[in-house]
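> Could you send the Antitoxin HicB prediction when you get a chance?

Sure thing. Input:
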Amino acid sequence: MHYKGYEATVEFDEDAELFHGEVINLRDVITFQGSSAAELKQALAESVEDYIEFCRSRGEEPEKPFSGQFVVRTEPALHKAVSTAASREGISLNKWVISTLERAVK
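Output:
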């Protein structure tokens, strides 16, 4: 499930006959629950909005979903090796890293 760029996973609790969801990939915890898809969607939206408002009331920036950018620090020798590998393939270092990461997570 998605709302305003936040992504959540959902599980079903057979005993309670409820769906429980949690926004993933954040340090902060945002949870919600419902007994139907419509209730889940509404609960996710309300929980994210509550989280954003809570952060505002404390003068803090809400944690954002991933931007698609990250910095990698490595030893100079590895930096040279991956740059050389990208050059051999005729692509940019950025494209080489993306391709390599995509293969790694499949």
